[in-house]
């Protein structure tokens, strides 16, 4: 069993290293910038996590030998999945490399087929386009930084509570880290970003977060203290979002700070967030999803999906649009078809239909990763 595990770690580590090397040398077009940025962070996060896992494996061999057969089977399945995922990513990178080579050949053939005067014109035109793209990217980057700066001063406070790390496995902590990465990427791209807070950052969470390239430069608040301590002057304006609350959120109050529980696989800890908020004397509320949609099944909204809904509402002021933007149609049932079509057509028109990750949603008993 151990040798099989080591083989899969070796395969994935090698492929992930290749991915990271390709990512460092890759130049992205403007229309691929956001997807590749997140993809690069994801690949590096996985690679470094592998290195840590290998080191921990050597130190924890006696404990692993006591793992149950079920746990061993689950671990092996996870390793196989990660190995396949690494191979798939490597194949995608290779495909992009081949496409770039094909375009380069076509360009060279085009230059070879014209006279010197026309060749000079083509080269000058291409240089002009490249200069325009570079300038556009520079302006977009400056715009994002300015929006994030303003959000830190006067944006809607959105807090991710990270005090549940001790209840999660290493894989779950890694999953939550990736969700946080997606949250920052979405907020950075948003036309109306929020003021993001990470509170209760413990050693385990910080170790994973520091593996994300550029994390130290993120324009958000990072607190080892709990939200109660970090925002003690505004305790009366704290609102913990939890599906178990009897209060339904009608709108977002710019004076309040909304807390999302950072907990993966919270089915093991039902009611933990409302219990925590109640004991701390914190207000609670739930998103009004039941007032706009009926879900076809009971599933979980991840942290990044809750954040995306909140960001979309900040931008549009419309819960229906926000839910339809995040929740795929195949997960809905009983919704007004005309309303669904109208919202989705509007999203297509505005170019907002593409997603960063697959949405998972809940039913009338809506439960989020914020529980």
UniProtKB/TrEMBL annotation:
GO function term, MF aspect, one: tRNA (guanosine(9)-N1)-methyltransferase activity
Keyword Magnesium: no
EC annotation from Swiss-Prot or TrEMBL: 2.1.1.221
Lineage top rank: taxon: Eukaryota
Catalytic reaction list: guanosine(9) in tRNA + S-adenosyl-L-methionine = N(1)-methylguanosine(9) in tRNA + S-adenosyl-L-homocysteine + H(+)
Composition bias type Basic residues, residue spans: 69-78
Gene Ontology CC annotations of this record: nucleus
Residue ranges occupied by any SAM-dependent MTase TRM10-type domain in the UniProt entry: 144-334
Disordered: region residues: 44-110
InterPro entries associated with the record: MT_TRM10-typ, MT_TRM10-typ_sf, TRM10/TRM10A, tRNA_m1G_MeTrfase_euk
Keywords: Methyltransferase, S-adenosyl-L-methionine, Transferase
Active site as annotated: 265
Transcription regulation found in the keyword field: no
GO terms classed as biological process: tRNA N1-guanine methylation
Composition bias type Basic and acidic residues, residue spans: 79-110
Protein known as: tRNA (guanine(9)-N(1))-methyltransferase
């Amino acid at each position: 069993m151990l040798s099989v595990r080591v083989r899969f770690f070796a395969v994935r580590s090698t492929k992930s290293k290749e991915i990271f090397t390709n990512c460092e040398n890759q130049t992205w077009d403007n229309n691929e910038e956001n997807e590749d940025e997140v993809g690069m962070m994801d690949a590096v996060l996985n690679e470094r996590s592998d290195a840590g896992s290998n080191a921990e494996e050597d130190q924890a061999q006696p404990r692993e030998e006591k793992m149950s057969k079920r746990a061993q089977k689950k671990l092996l399945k996870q390793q196989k999945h990660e190995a396949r995922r690494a191979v798939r990513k490597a194949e995608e990178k290779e495909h992009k490399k081949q496409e770039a080579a094909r375009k380069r050949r076509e360009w060279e053939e085009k230059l070879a087929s014209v006279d010197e005067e026309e060749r000079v014109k083509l080269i000058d035109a291409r240089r002009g386009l490249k200069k325009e793209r570079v300038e556009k990217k520079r302006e977009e980057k400056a715009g994002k930084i300015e929006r994030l700066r303003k959000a830190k001063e006067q944006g809607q406070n959105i807090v991710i509570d990270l005090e549940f790390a001790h209840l999660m496995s290493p894989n779950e902590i890694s999953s939550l880290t990736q969700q946080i990465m997606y949250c920052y990427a979405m907020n950075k791209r948003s036309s109306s970003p929020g003021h993001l807070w990470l509170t209760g950052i413990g050693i385990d969470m910080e170790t994973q977060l520091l593996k994300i390239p550029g994390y130290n430069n993120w324009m958000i608040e990072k607190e080892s203290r709990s939200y109660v301590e970090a925002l003690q002057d505004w305790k009366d304006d704290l609102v913990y979002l939890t599906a178990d609350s009897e209060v339904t959120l009608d709108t977002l109050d710019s004076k309040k700070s909304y807390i999302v529980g950072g907990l993966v696989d919270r089915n093991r800890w039902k009611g933990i967030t409302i219990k925590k908020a109640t004991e701390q004397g914190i207000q609670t509320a739930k998103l009004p999803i039941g007032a706009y949609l009926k879900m076809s099944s009971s599933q979980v909204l991840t942290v990044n999906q809750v954040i995306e809904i909140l960001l979309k509402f900040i931008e549009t002021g419309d819960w229906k649009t926000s839910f339809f933007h995040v929740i795929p149609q195949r997960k809905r049932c009983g919704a007004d078809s005309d309303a669904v079509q109208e919202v989705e057509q509007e999203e297509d028109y505005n170019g907002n239909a593409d997603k960063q990750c697959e949405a998972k949603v809940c039913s009338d008993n809506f439960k989020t990763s914020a529980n």
